[in-house]
Design goal:
Number of domains: 2
């Protein structure tokens, strides 16, 4: 199958254009880190796990040829193959190796060397037909990362004057804490009508940030709207 002129085309060219790996890793480094932390729950917050994650990210940056082996296509369930399943499987295998070196000073799977044949085959298989629980864990890590990035966008807009400074806090109080708009307005000493307008504008821009990132990741079509974006994200977060 030929790579279309989308994110997949970039992935397919990585072997010939390895300098572009930073573009791919910018999209996936944080979801990978979240996924690996979830896979090593006993080591949450430990410096050793942070070291392993950094080693894995460096490994992937230094092996664009492995990432280029990913392939688009249709899964047996009829959905599109997801690159995140491929790269997260590579990352987990690399993390197991790095962890083994940290703890025991030896490799867990020698095939994770420069050739990487065994792990690439496994990653291709997972991307084609992931087990439900595995897919849910990877989807959730990716969705949580995307949401965090969208919130960062919103806070940046409040800092640079695109939005009023209190808009992120209005959204947090209403959407995250579940407080009604009257309570929010009273807590922030804002007129109710002003609070309502700022909430609506904040919601619109948060949805835009989510939609733009889903388009960038190839999860919705270029002309996909905010409704379809939110459906994709909510499905992943409920996993």
């Amino acid at each position: 199958m030929e790579f279309p002129e989308t994110r997949w085309s970039l992935i397919g060219r990585l072997a010939e254009e390895p300098d572009q790996v930073s573009v791919v890793m910018e999209l996936y480094a944080d979801p990978i880190a979240r996924y690996l932390r979830a896979k090593f729950p006993a080591e949450q917050g430990s410096a050793r796990l942070d070291d392993v994650i950094q080693e894995v990210l460096v490994y992937l940056m230094e092996h664009p040829d492995l990432l280029a082996r990913a392939r688009p296509g249709e899964t047996p369930a009829g959905s599109a193959s997801k690159f995140r399943y491929f790269i997260m499987t590579l990352a987990f295998n690399a993390a197991r190796n790095a962890w083994r070196r940290q703890v025991h000073g030896k490799e867990l799977n020698a095939a994770m060397g420069d050739g990487g044949e065994t792990t690439v085959a496994e990653a291709l298989a997972v991307a084609h037909q992931p087990a439900d629980e595995l897919a849910k864990a990877m989807d959730r890590a990716w969705a949580e990362s995307l949401m965090a990035a969208a919130w960062r966008d919103l806070r940046a807009w409040a800092t640079d004057g695109t939005l009023e400074a209190e808009v992120p806090r209005i959204l947090e109080m209403n959407l995250v804490e579940g407080r009604n708009l009257r309570e929010v307005a009273e807590a922030l000493s804002l007129p109710l009508a002003t609070c309502h307008r700022r909430l609506a504008r904040g919601r619109t821009l948060l949805q835009k940030a989510i939609t733009d990132r889903l388009r960038q990741a190839g999860e919705i079509a270029i002309d996909g709207d905010g409704v379809s974006a939110c459906e994709v994200l909510l499905t992943a977060l409920k996993s």
